[in-house]
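Troubleshooting: if your tokenizer reports a length mismatch, compare your output against this known-good record of 275 residues.
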Amino acid sequence: MTERKSTTGYVHGFTDEEAARLDRQARFLEYKIHDKLPFRRARKLLEVGCGVGAQTEILLRHFPDLHVTGVDASPDNLAAARGRLEGASWADGRWHLLASDAGHLDLQAESFDSAFLCWILEHVAAPVQVLAEVRRVLRPGSSIVVTEVQNATFFLDPYSPCTLEYWRAFNDHQLELGGDPFVGAKLGNLLGAAGFREITTKVRTFHLDNRRAGERAEFLDFWSELLLSGAEGLLEAGKVRPECVDGMRRELRDVGHAQDAVFFYSFVQARAKVW
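Known-good structure output:
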């Protein structure tokens, strides 16, 4: 019998600063991730890896007839999510948070009519098992939406060698922790292996140059925050040198001021159904 791999850490760390960053990230990318989600007729949605509740809040705001059950393995994340959702009076009675291993959900079969996973499978060692568990608790005809990273697509101009060195170390560290920074391209296969049908994938791309200078500047600020959120862990693990992090800071600042700067990154959103 093959030994089941396990995830041994979270590359960004669990801090108040990281919780705030996740909130900003959710709002910043909302227009890309939540575009025309198939949940208009859904009433009971399962969100696996709800984290600090940033995506949960958006789902409840977009779909006023929806009840969301958010699952996460981190008590700190769930406490942050609870605080966030309790502050949204319009969401009263429409959410429930549950501490659970995503690969072994403490939920009854066929108890939900929709599911949403966002930036979670990149941190999971056994994504097919997680998706199979989600399928088990979904009723026939239910829709699932999975949004994931594809970190091999990252590109910056002007050329930024320290940033690329850091990015390689970032991805290697995530792999060593049991995650997968390239899982986005694999979503079709993973959903098929878990038994889902009618699988579609869409590559969502940020290609920002002089034609969208304002958005480019905003996105470079966002991306710099994302990269630096992993710096402490990478330094502690000896994966990068302090000089590399300092060099990356300089390069990102220089790219932000470059007249002909280019930023390119793609992620993947998959949709499927249970039959």
